[in-house]
Amino acid sequence: MTEKNDATRLDAEAVETLERVHPKLPRVAAGVEAGTVSRREFLRTATLLGLSAGAAYAMAGRLTGEPFAPAARAQSGSPAKGGTLRVSMNIKEISDPATVDWSEKGNELRHVIEPLVRISSDNVAVPHLAESWSASEDLRTWTFKLRQGVKWSNGDDFGADDVVANFVRWMDPAVGSSNYGRFSALRTSNDDGSPMLENGVVKIDDHTVEFNLRVPFLALPESMGDYPCLIAHRSFQGGNWVENPIGTGPFELVELTVGSRARYRRRESGWWGGEVFLDGIDYVDHGDDPAAPLAALASGQVDMLYRLNVEQVPAARAIPTLVLYQADTAQTGVARMKVDQAPFDDIRVRQAIQSCIDHERLLALAYQNLGTPGEDHHVSPVHPEYAAIAKPTQDYDRARALLAEAGYGNGLQIQIDCVAQPTWEPNTSQALVEMLRPAGIDLAVNIMPGGTYWDRWTTTPFGFTSWTHRPLGTQVLSLAYRSGVPWNESSYSNPDFDALLDEAEATLDVEERRAIMEELQRMLQADAVIVQPYWRSIATASSRAVQGYAHHPAEEHHFEQVWLSQG
Amino acid sequence: MLVFLGKRLAFMALTMLAVSILLFLLLEVNGDAVAVKVLGPYTTQEQRALWLTANGYDRPLHVRYAEWLGDILRGDFGQSIRFRVPVSEVLWPRLANTAILGAVTFGVMIPLALVLGVLAGMREGSRLDRSISVGSIVTTSIPEFASAVLVTFLFVFWLGWLPGTSSMNDGFAWRELVLPVTVLVLYGFGYIARMTRASMAEVMQTPYIRTAILKGLPYRQVILRHALRNALIAPFTVIMLQINWLLSGVIVVEFFFAYKGFGALLLEASLNQDIYLIQACAMVAVFVAVATQTIADIGYTYLNPRIRFA
Questions:
Q1: What are phi and psi of B106, to 5 degrees?
Q2: Handedness of CA A146, A147, A149, A152 (dihedral sign)
Q3: Does A456 touch chain B (CB under 8 A)?
């Protein structure tokens, strides 16, 4: 066969493989060679459309002319079996995997139950319980091939029934899962309370599931990597999951006591993914004082921390027995304004507040410069479709003029709610106070315990909310700024924005999607919904014994490849 | 004596009753708020209404109070929202942990404080008295959260001698008790030592001590037989009050060292608005306060015959 290779570094066979996976892939591959598509974006798109991770990495290496380099992992020597990894992390209740709303809860679950798709620590969607997937050209029909030979810990075979049962539960508005908003493309409409499409999730055979979407949805596989998308056994229909923790994962749950401890041991019947090195995992809850976990690590009571706060990084560096890990992320915090509550229902007030902000200064003041300044539109430079648009600048004259126009010429008194821990959140809020003052805005900071804040995060008029990392720029926009979704904390509602977001989510080509994203970013910026100070890098630390761990941008714990060096 | 005891116990019961009414009024009158805390913030008004009816919140206040009090008397404090188990399942082990911490702290602190106090008070103004006084004032004036950081820096990060947290995950470990007890003793012993010293110094100036010395009794006998018993009356009350202090004072220490005790539980309960757990913790705290006061009164009477027969 004579072929006209778009990508000259790939042979015919490879191009054919790509074409078979998705007709658009050869063009994406050509983009990598031409330098218009990044290696990471190729990996992401290719695996997302069903190319196996191994093949994708190999091709990316040929396309860029660089040999394949696995994700950086801290490791020395060859893996040794045995030992229990002790990790300091808050133990929260996890009675229903579908309603999990914290990364810690995801970690408590993911050693036992697993997702169809996993987001790797270098931000690429990798098949997990799903073996591969393919999409129709209009991105509305997706076929997921499930991994064969996966056994539940109770002896059952894992299969399509499990996947269907989970989706049916998630898409039931009464369950209250955030997946209801995440997979809104599976519903009859975007309206609150709308049910799942009748043929939304269809079992084709025991190991094939077909998804039929109302609208095209690019990030379907990646959305399945989010922490509430861990697949529970088909028999789980509510109640307390901990009482009968059936799983497909490498470990089984031995004990879980909220606020205290969670213990796991390696599954005796073996794991489908191969050898697991650790005998077990032992999570210890050291409470809400961030100094306690570090003291525990320093004195060898645990091997690893869930998280190292930014202000602890210098102290941890000074301890020679520790290893530090860092990850650049799309994690951030936003000071979001409730656009339907006074005084924030007046866009001039919101714009005035935005005009007071010097983002770089905020990053320096509140986060030791460990990150990237924000641009008030919640799309991060680490997202593939990020468009570089004009950055917001500090302009007090404009702020004062806007306030006078809105009737607050004599000053404006407002209050922002924020959590007490982690400290970067109140620190940032305090820095905002100073920044708003010159424009005549008197901001009070109402610092409250986490439990209290999360009771009212969607209702308070002005609140500082932290958002975790998600692999695609469209994902948070969809979760937090689409009209009427449960996590839309600002009550922002803009039909044009929703329509454009639908379009972005239906566009496979990065360049095309970036053009739409540019519009979305501008829209969100102009509508002045949030002040987004910065994107933060995250860190953690372990003892020198821990090998093979890579810090995950969403703080997910993947421990099946982790091992402990002896002595 | 029996009448006195009866009176004290009746007074104790009355105090607890009054507190329970206050607690009930503060936390339970607004049924809606309880429903929000139990069911979570994302529930609908209908769900809350259903829950309120199902749990009898539409009955008259005094009926609800009587039932609530009855449940508490039987040890049923309800279901913890945070821990998802009955409150009593969390409460008693945590209380036992704090009792251990408290007992060890007292076991170190009281003898230390009494010995130092007596030594200082025996010869008021001596060099020994001065050094003990200055030492105890300094340690008492450093708050727990500061001394906790200090001893952790010294013994955990710098010297590496002791474990940094005290969660007792692998069973009870004396090593893990050292730092929390040190912090509590450092803060608490000075006060008792100072009280003992003052009391001792006062006794040493009384005519009967002077008589005892002048009639040629060995000094040791004067101190042990005549001075001590009289000098210990005031410190005894202070020590009983320290039990109260300990119950709330441990919050800082338990939080800092991740010790799973009553203080940390109280903090967790309030941070998470775990309403039934807060109620239970408050009742326990009040009980301890009232009980120690009663014991102090009784003990005081025993030590001081003048009160006994008054």
A1: -65, -40
A2: negative
A3: yes
Q: How many CB pairs under 8 A join A and B?
A: 90
- pLDDT value at B226 more than 70: yes
- Residue A151's pLDDT band (boundaries 50, 70, 90)? very high
Tell me phi and psi for residue A79, to 5 degrees.
Answer: -55, 140
Min Cα separation B52/chain A (Å)? 19
A564 bridge partner residues: A546
What pLDDT digit, counting tens, does each position of A330-362 carry?
A: 889 999 999 999 899 999 999 999 999 999 999
Q: How far apart are CA B251 and CA B249, in angstroms?
A: 5
Q: Please give the structure tokens belonging to residue A364.
A: 């320096």
Q: How many residues does chain A have?
A: 567
- Do A213 and A220 touch, CB atoms closer than 8 A? yes
Name the 3-class secondary structure at A466: strand
B260 touches chain A (CB under 8 A): yes
The first and second tokens of residue A142, run together, are 């997706």
Q: In DSSP terms, which residues pair with A202 in a beta bridge?
A: A210
Helix (H) or strand (E) holding A541: strand A534-543
The secondary structure of A321-346 as a DSSP string is: TEEEEEEEEEEEEEEEE-TTSTTTTS
Q: How far apart are CA A89 and CA A112, in angstroms?
A: 17
The angle formed by the CA atoms of residues A377, A383 and A386, to the nearest 5 degrees, is 55
Q: CB distance A299–B163 less than 8 Å?
A: yes
On whether any CB of chain B is under 8 Å from the CB of A255, the answer is no
Contact status, residue B271 vs residue A451, Cβ threshold 8 Å: yes
Q: How confident is the model at residue A53 (pLDDT cuts 50, 70, 90)?
A: low
Q: Determine whether A55 is exposed, middle or buried from the number of CB atoms within 10 Å of its CB (0-12, 13-18, 19+).
A: middle
Complex prediction ipTM: 0.79
Indicate the burial class of B221 (C-beta count within 10 angstroms; 0-12, 13-18, 19 or more): exposed
Q: What is the pLDDT of residues B99-145, one digit of tens each?
A: 999 999 999 999 999 999 989 988 888 899 999 999 999 998 998 88
3-state helix, strand, coil in chain A (%, to 5): 30, 20, 45
Domains, chain B, in order of start with CATH, read 2-73 (no CATH), 87-303 (1.10.3720.10)
**Residues of chain A positioned with their CB less than 8 A from the CB of B163:** 296, 299-301
First to last CA, chain A: 59
CA distance A487 to A351: 23
pTM of the model: 0.75
Residue A503 and residue A282 in contact, taking contact as beta carbons nearer than 8 Å: no
Q: Round to whole Å and give the CA distance between A564 and A282.
A: 13
